[in-house]
Design a protein that fits this description.
445 residues; 3 domains; Rossmann fold; globular; pyruvate-formate lyase- activating enzyme; OB fold (Dihydrolipoamide Acetyltransferase, E2P); six-stranded parallel beta sheet; alpha/beta
């Protein structure tokens, strides 16, 4: 059938969870005989998987849609918008961007092929946006867009935290954990295809199993680590209140779990945390960090911070600055508060001026750059594990990431080796030099 020979191009925006959804749509279309292309100018169908978490993400999504809409003047006949922006603004998208032909919500990725078929057969605009809580996360096929040795695996969808600044529960629905058997089956397939590094993603990885009748995160980690071929398991997005002694012990004792944890704190002042609707408090966070560092050798901690939240006083900010100065966390991402409609924080009093937000961000980032440089300098002479990602022709060395670095987010490792290395090789390197975010080392004998 001629329809099945359509060429389809994708743009995937936002988080790693969104990327796994894109990979499922790629697989569904490819399995149905369609050709995936990277050049939008030769595509019959263009799909933009959007993000709508904060204003800058919405702007990026809209810009990408408008850019792809230009190809409607050429070969493209069908422009599909999927993801969080589609879930949130389905009516507005059709009205404001008439070039868009179809919309798929965050629970409707499995319908992508049917949408394409229906459009070309019936030539009508299509909106398929289910309720955000419609069903549990489905197990769908995947076509990896990441390097062959590394893959994200989504273990749940939705969120029950309802932080006052966050729109995610309305876009992704309530927490739904994937059945453990489905996750294990997918991980085995990934391992058989050559994946060595599994990166677990969810709104809160540590919450897995607590919102339903699935087993807990520790059971899942044990089963994943038993899969032949998997060498690294990385945890991202673990809320502090759900990191208990059992999980700490599992990270510490399980050799396949890299000693890295992404723990979004957002703030440290109890005043701000309370207004944010966060459940942890400063004393609890400080005690948790101390416990994790005492139990897990060479632990690298990443966090994210929001400055300029409504009601954040100068004292609150100073408290945050001093905390980060003393905690000396390995990786810190700082963001200015984005005022999102349909969230409780949107209508809060004492909104902070954008200029003050940016000033506070700059202060924290400057401080953290110095801390990062100092922490990296302390690693000189030490040996760490790293994964090889390619070869740098300019510097005549291999490039990769240490165990403490997540793809596309953290720093890089420049690796010198007497022997030939391949992408995906995991090696021990002795660190010879260090910079603010990157390290240089040689393969240890």
């Amino acid at each position: 059938m001629k329809l099945l020979k359509k060429k389809i191009g994708f743009i995937s925006l936002g988080c790693a969870k969104n990327l796994t959804d894109t990979e499922s749509m790629l697989a569904i279309l490819s399995d149905n005989g369609m050709e995936i292309v990277s050049d939008p100018s030769v595509a019959d169908v263009l799909v933009v998987n959007t993000c709508a978490f904060i204003d800058s993400a919405k702007e990026e999504s809209i810009d990408a849609i408008l850019e792809m809409a230009q190809y409607k003047k050429e070969r493209c006949r069908l422009l599909i918008v999927t993801g969080c922006l589609a879930q949130r603004y389905k009516n507005e998208i059709f009205k404001e961007i008439p070039e868009v032909d179809a919309i798929l919500g965050t629970n409707d990725y499995d319908k992508i092929f049917h949408v394409v078929m229906r459009f070309f057969l019936m030539n009508e605009k299509i909106s398929t946006v289910s309720d955000a809580d419609a069903h549990i996360t489905k197990s769908l096929p995947r076509m990896l867009s990441t390097p062959s040795y590394s893959a994200y695996i989504k273990i749940s969808d939705g969120c029950d935290n309802f932080c006052t600044y966050c729109i995610i529960p309305k876009l992704r629905g309530k927490y739904r954990g994937r059945p453990m058997a489905d996750i294990i089956e997918e991980a085995k397939k990934l391992a058989q295809s050559g994946v060595k590094e599994l990166i677990l993603v969810a709104q809160d990885v540590a919450y897995y199993g607590k919102g339903d009748d699935t087993d807990d995160i520790c059971t899942l980690l044990k089963k994943l680590s038993a899969i032949d071929g998997i060498e690294w398991i990385r945890l991202q997005y673990c809320y502090p209140e759900n990191i208990g002694d059992k999980l700490i012990e599992e990270i510490a004792s399980n050799d396949k779990i890299v000693k890295y944890i992404d723990m979004p704190l957002q703030h440290i002042s109890d005043n701000v945390l309370k207004r944010m609707g966060r459940r942890s408090r400063k004393a609890e966070v400080e005690a948790l960090i101390e416990k994790m560092r005492s139990k897990i050798e060479n632990l690298a901690i990443r966090t994210s911070i929001i400055v300029g939240f409504p009601g954040e006083t100068q004292q609150d900010f100073y408290e945050l600055k001093e905390f980060l100065k003393n905690a000396r966390l390995d990786r810190v991402g700082v963001f200015t508060y984005s005022r999102e409609e349909d969230t409780p924080a949107y209508s809060m009093e004492d909104q902070i001026d954008e200029k003050i937000k940016q000033e506070r961000l700059d202060i924290l980032m400057s401080q953290q750059m110095d801390i990062s440089a100092e922490l990296n300098a302390e690693k000189i002479g030490k040996t760490v594990q790293a994964i090889v990602e390619g070869y740098d022709e300019e510097n005549f060395c291999y490039v990769g990431r240490s165990f403490a670095d997540t793809p596309d987010v953290d720093g890089m490792a420049y690796i010198y080796s007497k022997d030939e290395l391949c992408a995906g090789d995991i090696v021990n390197i002795k660190i010879m030099d260090a910079h603010q975010y990157d390290i240089t080392g040689e393969v240890a004998d």
